[in-house]
Model the fold of this input.
Amino acid sequence: MLPLPRHAVLGNERSVVDLDSVETSLHPSRTDLGAEGYELLIEAGGTAIVAATEHGLWNGHCTLRQLMAVDGSAPHAHVIDTPRFAWRGAMLDVARHFFTVDEVKRFISLISRYKLNRLHLHLTDDQGWRLDIPGWPALARHGGSTATNGDPGGYYTLDDWREIVHHGERHFVTVVPEIDMPGHTNAALASVSELNVDGVCPPLYTGKQVGFSSLRMHLPATERFVHDVVRTLAENTPGPWLHIGGDEAHSTDHAEYVEFIELLQREVAATGKRMVAWEEAGAAPLHRDTVVQHWLSTDKVAAAPAGVGVVLSPASHTYLDMRHDEDDPLGRRWAGDIDVDAAYGWDPVDVVPGLAADRIVGVEAPLWTEKVPTFDAVEHLCFPRLLCLAEVGWTPQPMRQWDDFRVRLQHETNRLAMEGVNVHRSKLL
Ligand code: TNX
Done:
């Protein structure tokens, strides 16, 4: 009998699973499982995982660990499972507040357990430049020296960067670096005088405003700067995507903005990578292999040329810097309160009216960190809400039910808490 494309039968019997003796087999001929799918069998006699790829085996292990109770037992099961979307991501803003290599690695380890497979790192903004770029030493050393509220800054050397992306590879998480241009660039302007029209560096910025800074297209240094930054990212990032920002460029006039996006697109294409940009770039003529990231305005996404892929980060469901509820000591309010029900209760195909379903590449939840100074606070805002996003990205809509998910979310939240993760205790769980 041919296996069903998707299939999950959990029995009433349970057996203790010995994780060291799980039988794993790679069968590249199992094309029905795709790049990430797996088949998992838990029986009294043992546990087996089959997949067509290493990534699939990893995903099977993730599911197995979630099925296991604290006593090490799991229900007898037969699961055949593949993801709904290819891009299932989290974004961490390390520009507004800096997080160390070890913290970023811990973040990767945590998200990878839920089969999330992209980590978008927002590396530069008005408040900080976090990656060393050869030939432009002031960017990281001066531009990275502080953070929002004058909190301590920091930056990654290229060795640090490679350590982060390597940790990602080992956890099947592709790192997507973002250098935000042409707006959100005060840290760069404050570090390199030639990037300023008057040749004078503005002071470093430690406030929370957006939209006041811009690179200038026609200054002689700008193109060389863009070229060197894009090259450095491409040469040190194994994944296929480079995110160039493009959001909230309120101090760049429209014609110059469009020219800038075209320049970025040429530079990224010349490296053989694919460009990702925030939805605002939908106003420029984009190549078909560009991906735009929706966050606020569905009109801007709808304006993007046909064929351009879309990652969905609707603020009202995915913004991890929003508070959970009125008693949450952390979090902002502008996109509304987002408790676990709102983080779970949306269907990606409903977000942008008229957008063909096959243009949706996937989903991503961003954590902006203007008000998130510590990694403890990162954990509080991300967990367990990121698990909601993980299931929105993985599981087909007809198989998703809040009542069923809620119980599993409760278990997983307890497990994370037991392991010392600073989870938020939602009133809904
Ligand atoms: C909007 S989302 C921003 C960020 C802020 C965030 C705060 C996006 C592309 N831009 O610059 O950090 O709101 O919630």
